[in-house]
Amino acid sequence: MKRIGVVLSGCGFKDGAEIREAVLALLALDRAGVEVVCAAPDIDQAKVVNHVTGQVVAEHRNVLVESARIARGRIRPLSDLSADDIDGLVLPGGFGAANNLSTFATEGSDAVVEASLRDLIVAVHRQRKPIGAICIAPAVVARVLGSHGVKVTIGMDGDTARAIEATGARHERCPVEGIVVDPENRVVSTPAYMYDAPLRAVAAGIELCVAEVLRMV
User: Fold this and answer.
1) What is the mean pLDDT of residues 60-65?
2) What is each CA distance from 85 to 12, 32, 101, 123, 205, in whole angstroms?
3) 194 found inside a domain
């Protein structure tokens, strides 16, 4: 049975993993009959946001603990996940990808990627295993694999696209329902909630992304 790692970054799009993107990816993987291995870094969130008001609040939350809400408790620390354990990797988006898994939200092309995720992406890429990246997560992949000229998409956002290209990566515009495939680097990306789009359109893109990742396995 194929085993796909899914890296989560908390719970809630303003400060963690985008829940809909994560669940849609998990659903697509489950429908394909693959084994899912959820993981998240055992670190504090960069910030905690009240999702009603949008305001940062004075709380401390752990990324692994919060991610376990989405994974229904079946999750491991990211530092325990090896490229040898999986056949491919999927990264849902949300501000957690840009704040917890990396510092892309504040440092753009100079972002620091969380060490265990950086090492995992490098190892998965070296083993020629596919990577699927959703929403803003392609920016994280670009920061790690930019020197390889990886091709990704975050949709149509010009400022974010320029930051991605400053890493050495290539950006390609893409509609919300579509995907961009880099066959050489074996990376698949889709914009998802980089657009203010209906759930059905986000789902269409994520389903294509997951299907292409599994085709590459």
Assistant:
1) 98
2) 27, 19, 20, 11, 26
3) yes
Quote the CA–CA distance of 18 and 205 in Å, as a whole number: 15
Tally of CB atoms within 10 A around 110: 12
Residue 46 lies in a domain: yes
Overall number of domains in the chain: 1
Its pTM stands at: 0.97
**How does pLDDT run across 171-200, given as a tens digit for each residue?**
999 999 999 999 999 999 999 999 999 999
Which among 11, 38, 135, 174 is annotated as catalytic? 135
- Please indicate, yes or no, if residue 120 is contained in any of the structural domains: yes
Please report, for the chain, how many H helices and E strands are present, in that order: 8, 11
> Which pLDDT tens digit goes with each residue over 2-11?
999 999 999 9
Q: What is the pLDDT of residues 39-54, one digit of tens each?
A: 999 999 999 999 999 9
| Residue 35 included in any domain | yes
Give whole-number Cα distances, 140 to 49, 57, 59, 71, 107, in Å: 21, 25, 25, 21, 12
Which CATH number fits the domain that encloses residue 67?
A: 3.40.50.880
CA distance readout (Å), 96 to 10, 32, 84, 99: 6, 26, 25, 5
Residue 135 is among the residues annotated as catalytic for this protein: yes
Percent of all residues in the chain with a pLDDT value above 90, rounded to a whole number? 100
